[in-house]
TrEMBL record:
Keywords: 2Fe-2S, Iron, Iron-sulfur, Metal-binding. The lineage of its organism: Bacteria, Bacillati, Actinomycetota, Actinomycetes, Mycobacteriales. It comes from the Bacteria. Belongs to the NifU family. InterPro entries: FSCA_dom_sf, NIF_FeS_clus_asmbl_NifU_C, Rieske_2Fe-2S, Rieske_2Fe-2S_sf. It comes from Nocardia tengchongensis. This is NifU family protein.
Length: 305
């Protein structure tokens, strides 16, 4: 559920400022429309000239650098966004999408699932999801948030994400495409929001804590260096899991952790999407990423709003 910084280049504060600047420009241009079409056309022409001037300068800088130096520039989110705007990024769309998806695979793997690129055609990206626990009530929202966020940051030219059916896996049920992100547009419409939760960073290895994120009660656990977040709601008895503790799963390695409900004593696999080990059902996982050193949790719309 957690993507470490070395595995996933989560959007940084600089990237967020870049997006906010673009949104402010669009807002200003829209405001100028009130003065009439001529005023807007002149404003757009001015912005175009400025962007073109900076783009020409950036192209000249890139042309003077060795390929290794350009790769290092592309590894910085803010600079990468500028390279994309001016068509100077060293990697094509497919390469950037695949790299972004590699970053979220640890989270998908916590659900026992995976994702593969089927096709990139124009502004449409087609993905196939496989595996995962089809009984997870929050898979649709959490996968949408994790995958869309990664793709939008790496390849803003992708306008639509479509899910196609994957080949059945004999060892795991395929995530039904209709239950996932059948179609995602890059117009800012999300199934939820990323909410900053800096207090989660205070958890030490093996610790469990209850927190309020966007007004919703959540339970956070740290297993080694990884942070896992769930709704504070036992899938067995329906009670809060306040006071729950982590236990090592007998016969498994140190990374296998079990969360036991303090009320009904049901056991859940923390690392694998909160699947119950002694019965049916499982906890509701919430994606968590580290952004600029601060944990952020993806809260579904009904909780974040």
């Amino acid at each position: 559920m957690n993507d470490r910084p070395e595995n996933h280049r989560a959007p940084t504060a600089d990237t967020d400022r870049g997006r906010e600047a673009g949104e402010r420009i669009d807002t200003l241009l829209s405001a100028l429309s009130a003065a009439g079409p001529v005023a807007r056309e002149r404003a757009e022409a001015l912005v175009g000239e400025i962007v073109g001037l900076y783009g020409a300068g950036l192209e000249r800088v890139v042309g003077l650098l060795e390929p290794e130096a350009v790769e290092r520039l592309a590894a910085d989110d803010l600079i990468a966004s500028l390279l994309l705007v001016h068509g100077l990024h060293p990697h094509d769309t497919l390469t950037r999408v695949r790299t972004a998806l590699d970053g979220v695979r640890p989270y998908l793997g916590s659900h026992g699932g995976d994702v593969a690129v089927v096709e990139v055609a124009g502004g449409v990206l087609r993905l196939a999801f496989s595996g995962s626990c089809r009984s997870c009530p929050s898979s649709s929202v959490t996968l949408e948030l994790a995958v869309e966020d990664a793709v939008r940051a790496a390849a803003p030219e992708i306008e639509t994400i479509e899910v196609v059916a994957a080949e059945p896996d004999s060892n795991a049920g395929v995530i039904p495409a209709e239950s996932l992100l059948a179609r995602i547009h890059s117009n800012g419409e999300h199934g939820g929001h990323w909410i900053g939760a800096p207090e989660l960073a205070q958890l030490g290895a093996g610790e469990v804590g209850g927190f309020a994120v966007a007004g919703a009660a959540v339970l956070a656990c740290r297993v080694g260096d990884d942070l896992f977040v769930y709704r504070d709601h036992c899938a067995s008895c329906g009670n809060s899991m306040a006071g729950a503790a982590l236990h090592r799963r007998a016969g498994f390695g140190s990374g296998a952790a079990v969360l036991r409900c303090p009320v009904c004593r049901a056991h859940f696999d923390v690392v694998h999407a909160g699947a119950r080990l002694d019965g049916d059902g499982h906890l509701e996982p919430l994606p968590v990423l580290i952004r600029s050193g601060t944990p952020q949790v993806a809260m579904p719309m009904e909780a974040a709003g």
